[in-house]
Amino acid sequence: MNARPNPALKKLAPQLEAAKKRRRTAMILGVWIVVVLGAALFEIKPALREISFWRSRRYATKAEVDLNAENWQAAQIKASLAYQIQPAEPTAIRAVARLQSLTGNSAGALTFWDMLAEANALTPADRRMQVEDLLRSDMIPQARRAMEGLLAEAPNDPQNLRAAAKWAAAEKNSEQALKFAERALAADPASTQGKLLLGLLQCETPRVGAREAGFETLVKLTESRERPGLEALVFLSTRKDLPDRHKSTVIMGLRNHPLASEQHRLIALDLEIAAHPEQRDALLDAAVEQYKKADALSQRTFGVWLNSRNECKRTLDLLPLEEAMKRKDFLLVTLDAMAQQKRWTEIEEVLQGKAVPLDEVYTELFLARASMELGRTSAADLHWRRAHVAASASPEQIRFLGGYAERVGQTDQAELAYRS
What we know:
This protein has helices at residues 7-68, 72-85, 90-102, 106-118, 124-136, 140-153, 158-170, 174-187, 192-204, 210-221, 227-238, 244-256, 262-275, 280-291, 296-308, 312-318, 321-324, 328-340, 344-351, 360-373, 377-391, 395-407, 411-419. The chain is an all-alpha fold.
């Protein structure tokens, strides 16, 4: 017997058909959206990748500006960002390599030079820096191969010739190094870097008359307002065989060079005292009076310099305790001078008073030293432990603690700090 049609279903048939049609339309639309989105993503991925390369190059370019200005911290931040955004971008790799090289981490730089080499992106300038990093890493055979390649491509390029002079010097071939440096300067007579290199090599070579020629080359270079002029002044100031006729030139140059720092001016003072030992007291007294009118950073630098030469009385004249109590950087210098005078009880009284402008680690270090010198071993051990705890969160303070402990003969405490 046939089932009778359900009147309700018959009544709903148009609505069901419409719903079915809507589902079919939605399904087709969904498939179309998926196809369109997939195609869009296919197009967007390369675009996003290109944007990442652009951002990486942008940060790398900014890092290069900071490197050229010797703003190392800013350069490090930007080079790191460039590399993190796109590790395959050659300009980012180059920025990191140059940063490592210029800040003395040749081993780290070589890793990134190798990455550039694998990407076939090494420029001649990159290869010259790579040679210098190889030489500083004592990888002489590798430097030789790299240098031979550069010379084969451009044998008369003055920058290649200067790099070759450094390589020959590392090979202990002083005569060949001098020849390369002479060729480089002949090819680029205005180069202050070339004059500096030639003068340095002349001072070190056994060739007859070369040392005297080197002094003349470098003294003339000191007239340069560029960095090679300052480097020539610093080198000449270290030479015990520097002729007396050149010493006043070097002293004045170190004081007046536009790139000179306070440290350079103190090198000049050292050289002047060495040249006129009979005037030592007068020169130091005059310097103290001059630095009393200087800025705070210069005063602190001079105070450290005085302490390193056992001139603690003059340090305390420059930075008396009542003034030093207003600044942490001054107080550390003043306490160091008082320690040289063995004023341990007074140091304890100062550090146990109120409003001492020192971080806890420095206070505990001086208290540990004072307790040691006064024969209170248990108290000294307690202050050393407190100093280690106070420094534990700061690598900089841990290094300071280790260096201070080593300086005062506490090797166990220094080892503990360095192990941290």
